Structures are given as C-alpha cells and as structure tokens.
Amino acid sequence: MYEIFNKENQCFDMNSVDRDYREKSVSYMSQYKSEIEKGKLQYAELELAKERAAAIKFKVLNELDKYLIEFETNFVSRGGKVIWARDAEEAIREILNIAERKQAKLIVKSKNNITEEINLNEQLIKAGLSVQETTAGEFIYQESKEASDHFVNPLIGKSREEITSFFNQKFGLPLDASSSDLTLYIRNYLRDKFSKADIGITGANFLVSNVGGVALTENEGNALMTVSMPRTHIVIAGIEKVIPSLKDLDLFWPLLATHGTGQKITAYNSVVLGPRQEGEIDGPDDMYVILLDNGRTKLLEKVEQRRALSCIHCGACLNVCPVYKTIGGLAYQSTYSGPIGSVVTPHLKGLDGYNSMSYASSLCGSCTEICPVKINLHELLLFNRNDAVVNHHSGYRERFLMLGWKTIMGNRKYLDFLSPKNKNWLVKKIFNKKWGQLRELPIIKEKSFKQLWEERENPPK
Description:
CATH architecture of the largest domain: 3-Layer(aba) Sandwich
Strand order of the largest sheet: 3-12-9-6-4-5
Mean pLDDT: 88
Shape: globular
Number of strands: 12
Largest sheet: 6 strands, parallel
Helix content: 40-55%
Distance between the termini: 60 Å
CATH topology of the largest domain: Rossmann fold
Number of domains: 3
Strand content: 5-15%
Number of helices: 22
CATH class of the largest domain: Alpha Beta
Low-confidence stretches: 1-19
C-alpha cells in the first residue's frame, strides 16, 4: 500500500493496490452517499448556499491581508498572541520556544491536518516532549504506530474487527468489546492525559476576523478538553482559514457537516475568543495562534489555482473520487490526498516531487460537483498540468511522446499508415505492462471514424 505511488517513476501501480482496503472503503462510501443525501434535505436551495459560500471565500482570498490583520487586531485585544510563520521550520521553532518557557512535558492534541503537514509530532518527540493524540481515530493510529488514510475520517481503512483486535492486543480488552466499551476506555485513558497536560494544541476550522475568534468543529468533545484543561492553548492554522464574520458560520458550519458526514450540523461547534478572561472559571492562561504560510502564498499567486485555498476540508471530494476510492490516501504520500490534495500539494511541496499527483485523475468532475464551496477541482488539475509542462517538470520522455502524438494525430496520412491489426499490436507492445492486469486494453476497430463517416455520406449504390 505504501509503494503504490513511486516518486522516482512518477506513477501509480494499480497491481499493488490493497484489495482489502477497497472492500472496506466501498462499504464506507456507500454509507456516506446515503447519509449525505439525507443531510442535503435540510436545504431548500443547496446550490444557492454553495454559491454564497464560494463568493465569501473568494472575496477573502482576494483581500486576505486585510482579513488577517483584522483577525490579529481583535484576537490580541483580548490577550491572545499571534505568531506569523513563513514555513514549517518557523512554526515548529515557535512551538518549541513556548514549550520551553512553560517548562512543558506533556502536550495533548486534537485532530488537525496542519500539524501533520509540518510533521509536528515527530519534532516534539525529538525534543523530548510527550505528545498525545486525543481524537479516537488518531489515538488508535498513534498507539498502533500507523498512518491514517483519510484526513477527515481516519478510520475509513479499518474494519471493526481490526479495531477490537488492536484494543485486545494493546490494552487487553476482550475481542467482543462493544463500541461503547471501546469509547469508554479511550475516554478514561485520555481524561488522565488531559488533567496532566501542560499544553493543548488544536487547529482551526475557521478564523473569524470580525471577532478574532477560532471556530472549532468536532464530534467527540476532545477539542474542547484540549482547549480548556491545559494552562496553555496553541492554535496552528493556515492563513487561508479566515472568514469575515461570525454570522458566516451559519452558512459554513452546516455545509461542512453535511458534506463531511451527512449531519445537519456537527455535534460540537465552538468559538474560542482568547485566553481566560477575568471572571471566567475555565480556559487557558495563555493562548497563541500561529498563522502558517508554508507555500500558501505561492498558491495564492496562481490566478486560477488560488481557488483551491477556499477548501473547508470536508473531505467530500475524496469520498466521491474514483481514484481515491481505489488506491486510498496513503498512495499520495501527502497530508492532503484525493482531488484537493492533487491540486494543492504540488504548490505547497514543489512540482519536482509531487508533479504526478495532478495526472493521477480521471477528470470525471465528481469532485467539482460535490464541493460545498464550488471549487472547480478537475479544471484546476489541468492548470497544474499546464504549469508542469511550461516549467519543464514533465520530463524529456513525456515531451517526446507528446510531440510524436501531436504529429500523428495532426495528419490523416500518419493515422492511416498502419492497419488496425498493426495498430493493436503496437498499442499492446507499448502499453500492456503500464495498463495493469485489472484492465483490458481498448481494441482499435477495423474501420476508422473517417471511413465510417465517408460510408455514411456516400453509401454504396
């Protein structure tokens, strides 16, 4: 599974796909499709809601500096601290500095993709700190020392039997333990961690600029515990997470829930407005928001692809993508997989290593159709491909083959030079191994379209 995407060869090997993953993902995806259709019923005009959300996010991206400064001003006014980080190295250094000043030993974290993007856990552990994931799915993956496959629903690749077997081997729970038993065990295990933690780290679903608030969305309540119990709270958020107003959450929260899990709204929705204020009985003494660039301004420079920064990380594009559903997220070797990952990762991490992600797509448009903020993902993949060619990241062999293809397809005589039998032999010779054992090569018909058209226009008398 880990070797499906080969950076050196820049291709997907369909013969290496984990068949077991497919069976489990198909079950999940069919359930997801059913739930999301139910969730959509809450809307009288879903398309109108999506258009409004898209317009708001696009406006923010075009005036991002203004909204970020507004957020910082309002957040700092209530005692919070904002740190601007250009890249992963700066963000990690600032977090380690905070941990050193607080003499921290234990850090608890709620699920957030941006810490995975910068490999934060690895760096904290290397510095001698203990780090505990508190979202149930991430907790299981951390304890089993595996990587999660879906950046919204991490347990998509695991069956119930695998989960109970893990708890049996790791913690001694019975193999017939119920979901309630497992949940209760995790709860009791993590409560001890929450009570002893020095620092809590979360991401941010949205940064609300007009109030300086951090909006968090979750289904388990662990993010609230991460915020309220440790004495220091650190938020790490990409600079694109801003929305203009608190009232915009009325639009974005239901869209996120419906397209992420099929819910009308997620179980826990919170807006954190800074550290504990005078008269408040809980909350952190100190709160930091780290605004991370890490390649986002490079993507912002792209007139077309900047729309991808509108993403609200619902995961819907992954769940409908025929490529993702077949090979899983680990094959992308990136925090952000599926269609959205294929668009943004080459800009965040560089075209040299991640250029081929934009090519591993059927361009069917399912991702664009379902996106709650109307990102034209399948079209943006074509812009990425164009960038790869223009900037000479496509490779000599590909450029040579495309030149040959262009020459042949542009001249009817070249097309008709070989007989259909010889054409089929040539196609089989060139593409058979690349096509894979699970698919059949297309067969070139005896008569070309030109011949069929001529017979139609000039039928035999």
